[in-house]
Amino acid sequence: MALSSPGTGLPLTVATPSPPLTRGLLPLLLLGNTAMYALYIGVPGVLLALQIEHIDAAHKVADFGLVSGVSAIFATVFNPVAGALSDRSGRRNPWILGGGLLALPAMFLLGTVHTILLITVVWCLGQAVLNVYQAALTSVVPDRVPLAARGRASAAVGLGLPFGSTVGALLGAAFSDRYRTGYLVFGALVAAAAVIFTAATREERRPPRAPLPLARQLAAFTGALRDHDFRWAFIGRALLVLGYFAVAGYQLYILQDHTRLPAGLAPEHAVAILMPVNALAMVVSTVLGGWLSDRHDRRKLFVGASAALSAAALVIPAVSASWSAMIVFSVVNGLGFGCYMAVDTALVTLVLPQAEDAARDMGVLNIANAGPQIVAPFAASLIVSVSGGYTALFLAGAALSVLGALAVRPIRSVR
After folding, report:
1. Which pLDDT belongs to residue 360?
2. pTM to 2 decimal places
3. Could you tell me which of 335, 282, 281 has the C-alpha nearest to residue 306?
4. From its phi and psi, is residue 7 left (phi > 0), alpha (psi between -120 and 50) or beta?
5. In what residue span(s) does the Major facilitator superfamily (MFS) profile domain sit (predicted)?
6. Is 353 helix (H, G, I), strand (E, B) or coil?
């Protein structure tokens, strides 16, 4: 469901002319991200949760936390590494195509395993190839989009989340009784998007960069976080993502064990209702947030306000376990998170340290996406187990979102 020179605290983005916006690039970015988020939402949010419950229903919360947390480690490692490799090669399209095509065999393998251990191993493999795809796709915006259009481009990327969430939830519900086939469908969706994107977009090949010694590569990764603005953008993203995924990752189990559903409504079908509601709210806030942030040249205001709105949303199911409360939560959370992801992505591209290291540094920032997903399942499992329910989990997520809203205030180079 996706970012500074060491020591100075000032952005040192290389002054290169902004590229013209390639015709058709924004719809293709929407397509590529929609397919990716459909898999990210539909597989762990529905199919993987059902597969784990089928294998070990008594320990499903702990098992799901283990699988999600361990696999997120692979996401954290592979995203910046893949970004650095595409930087070095001077190309993005081959990495998008390779990662997308490999999603299909990875999903096929996931449907063939029957133990928690093997699910963990194969889903780790799936996370690895998907983050190769994601790292290169994310870097297309700073590579090929002029500064004046970053908000619109980020909105196109951000719209991939609500559209992908809807597709993922609907497909997940449709294949809830045939999860092996569902895995193949999701893998084929990402593979097809990769083929279409790379066939329809042309990129100017930049000169390949000489390999750096491992010590210098590690120093480069950590060096980006020494920049003042980049560091605060990283912290804000990490806090909000941690709060969001601590709750979102357990949505199916929340609907099973916390929410009072209407008679006859199965939890997996409730997911398929909530996701389009959430997606519609995300679409509205993503488009408006991206457009308004461009128009007024104000990124921090929109990022902070939307993070605060996400916090307010998480309080709603904490005070009411009704089905109506979950619907309201989905609307408000969609408004907040959609605007946040659209505008924060634009903000991040404006505090990148150096243009030639865009993919690497976007990969470093993506640790703020993947890293909290390592912590979130374990933390959520612990909170639910200790508190005996999900109310404390909602409140913890709200507190983290408030901190994420406050984290953008120290950023100096962006309004």
Report:
1. 63
2. 0.70
3. 335
4. left
5. 26-415
6. coil
Residue 217 confidence (pLDDT): 58
DSSP string, 24-68: THHHHHHHHHHHHHHHHHHIIIIIHHHHHHHH-GGGHHHHHHHHH
| Contact between residue 256 and residue 267 where contact means Cβ atoms under 8 Å apart | yes
pLDDT in the model for residue 87: 74
Quick one: pLDDT at residue 3? Answer: 28
Cα–Cα distance, 268 to 74 (Å, whole number): 27
To 10 degrees, what angle do helices 150-174 and 323-349 make? Answer: 140
Where do the domains of the chain lie?
Answer: 25-406
CATH number (1.10.10.10, 1.20.1250.20, 3.40.190.10, 1.20.58.480) of 25-406 reads: 1.20.1250.20
Burial of 327 (0-12, 13-18, 19+ CB in 10 A): middle
Question: Which tokens hold the place of 92?
Answer: 């993005």
The ranges of the chain with pLDDT < 70 are 1-22, 205-224, 352-363, 370, 373, 413-415
Q: Which two tokens stand for residue 248?
A: 């979102």
Cβ-contact 37, 166 below 8 angstroms: no
- At 283 the pLDDT is 83
311: tokens are: 């916090």
Residues 6 or more apart in contact with residue 210 via CB below 8 angstroms: none
- Helix, strand, coil: what percent of the chain each, to 5? 80, 0, 20
